[in-house]
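pinning this so it doesn't scroll away 📌
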Amino acid sequence: MNNKRLLSLDILRGITVAGMIMVNNGWGESFEMLGHSEWNGMTPCDLVFPFFLFIMGISCYLSLVKSEFKPTAPVIRRVVKRTVLLFAIGLFINWFDNAIWGDVLCFDHLRIWAVMQRIALCYGIVSLYALFCNHRYTIHTVIVLLSVYAAILVLGNGYSQDASVNVLAQVDVNLFGSEHLYHKSAVDPEGLLGTISSVAHVLLGFYCGMLIRKRETVEQKVLAIFVVGTVCVIGGYLLSYGLPLNKRIWSPSYVLMTCGLASLLQAFLMYVIDIQQKSGWTKFFHVFGVNALALYVSSELLAILLGYLGFSASVYDAIHAVIPALKWASLTYAVYFVLLNFVIGFVLYRKKIYIKL
């Protein structure tokens, strides 16, 4: 039963990572649903990263429960080491994107934050919470974190697109300097203060991991996760009237809505795979799921490299010559890039190589 349960989690992780790779690698003019919302609102593209953080929360619980959550020196070292490694990989991706174009000494304007850095901080903080805090108060902790962050947004003009008055932007600018931040929106979407709500996000996944572990039957597990998902979606919808959904600032309503949708999808997959025993369709996503972070990192580096070599432009031009519609050509290129990364993952999968970052 444990293996089947973990298979459904791997499949959700695989769906999410394949989605992350696809939405990050459209070429030219993409469909709106494959792009992030500019500010308030939410597109399907805005679901993939939060789904990954939610899954990471589940994985944190299922991983650390093996050590009975005892904060021994080896366990703490492992958590710290992985946190530093993930953060360093994120910095390396940002550096490589500059260095390949000749800007090797880009440290005075190297972006500090990005997806991997947020994953690193959330993983480290939630893992330490798991080792040192009473899990009984997980939901209480989530409520406190989201309440504090909501107060910061309301009192600090967190929804303003004017970076000069937005507290999220100002904290990042004053602590790290404008040159080290993302410049395509009013705030850095992976900035420091947004980590508060992101940690709450991962803790909701952690709570679901606890439910999955403690419920006796698969039916009970599915029901528990379904209830959490329903409550979160309703809560996120209601909260969005005062605090709109916003991926850029990782708003509290966005946390609840995306965690709720991820919970519902996880419950559905557990029902289909574990109860209905319908898993014949899962191999494609299983390939992505078992090497999720490794394939995400390789996709980022590969996209940078192929872009530099001009190969990406050549492939897109060939696609566009056959498919004149720009948005469909962009979608086709994105699917091609997902399949390219699937080939890399499939080689690892066949050789039973699982890279744990």
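📌 and the second one:
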Amino acid sequence: MKQEMKYEQAFAELQAIVRKMENDELDIDQMSEQLKRAQQLIKLCKDKLTKTDEEIKKILATEA
């Protein structure tokens, strides 16, 4: 079973992609590939944040 990527890992990889783009380190083929990867990472981060937010709201609701 593939281990799920942690938020911090996804965010760090996303930052690395942005840094490469800003420094013009990618050719056209790499840029297309890296943009697709960045989209996956953004979705993963958003999903994790949404899930965490929902869990926190549930915990707070049961304590109220």
